[in-house]
Amino acid sequence: MRSLIDIQELSPEEIDRLIAVADDIIENPGKYAHKCEGKKLATLFFEPSTRTRLSFEAAMYDLGGHVLGFSEAQSSSSAKGESVADTVRTVSYYADIIAMRHPKEGAPMVAAMNCDIPIINAGDGGHNHPTQTLTDLLTIKREKGRFDNLTIGFCGDLKFGRTVHSLIGAMSRYKNVRMVLISPDELKIPDYVKQTVLDEKGIEYTETNSLDEAMSGLDILYMTRVQRERFFNEQDYIRLKDSYVLTPEKLKTAKSDLAIMHPLPRVNEISVAVDKDSRACYFKQVKNGKFIRMALIMMLLGVE
Ligand code: NCD
Predict the structure, then answer these.
(1) CA atoms of 261 and 282, how far apart (whole Å)
(2) The ligand 1 atom nearest the CA atom of 227
(3) % of the chain surpassing 90 pLDDT
(4) Does the model's pTM come out above 0.90?
(5) Burial degree of 249 (CB within 10 A; 0-12, 13-18, 19+)
(6) Does domain 131-285 have CATH number 3.40.50.1370?
């Protein structure tokens, strides 16, 4: 029995396999319509979500399975003080697999240690978000055709942005990948990510405040939202929230085959005028999210 808590638990070969299955689902959805018949996915969301939860649920329905769960902590017994361990133990008697989002870093790992069905980390605080990374990797593969030889700019809230931490972890395993980390000083990438991933893997990276200076060298620009819910005070959020706003004007120096990505939701970071640009990939990410989650659910349930 296997869970997915951190993206690095999947080898690059397993990721290739998941992407191949997702590509096949996109081509032949009918082949997969009964793969999880009789199986149940529980979505336990202690934090808000639109894409992650609904793509998990749509994925399970498209595999012929069923879904149960809750979408806010207030409607579960966690509001009465129940521990994560007791909640997942309970749910494990009713479901075959759990996708869980929680504001506390490490909560999905605690869950995995306390039940014997697979747990999927659907985002834990400012830490990790491995299934967004699978979505991002499928998108990168479909858009760029490769993971090697890429320069990726991560822009915005690199401190609290869990999607950034997980994608850096995944991309650091490919050859000749360079990273440009673009953020205000207060929202720089945490030291633990630098030490355990970037330095450990010998990744070539630079840190800068300037998106304009970085733009022309990028193959991928990964924009992020300033993570308001992780801030201790509202003043800091207000000061930092509009640090970067991507507009058609700012893209003038960008490569013609740049892939513009964002895990969404966006607030102000990408002007809607950019949506018309053929380089905008963020709604493709949304679409891809369901297919790669279908592939992941099958893998963790041991469905051929
Ligand atoms: C992200 C998340 O929840 O970390 N959203 C998502 O799952 N697509 C990004 C964010 O909330 O900014």
Answers:
(1) 5
(2) 12
(3) 98
(4) yes
(5) exposed
(6) yes
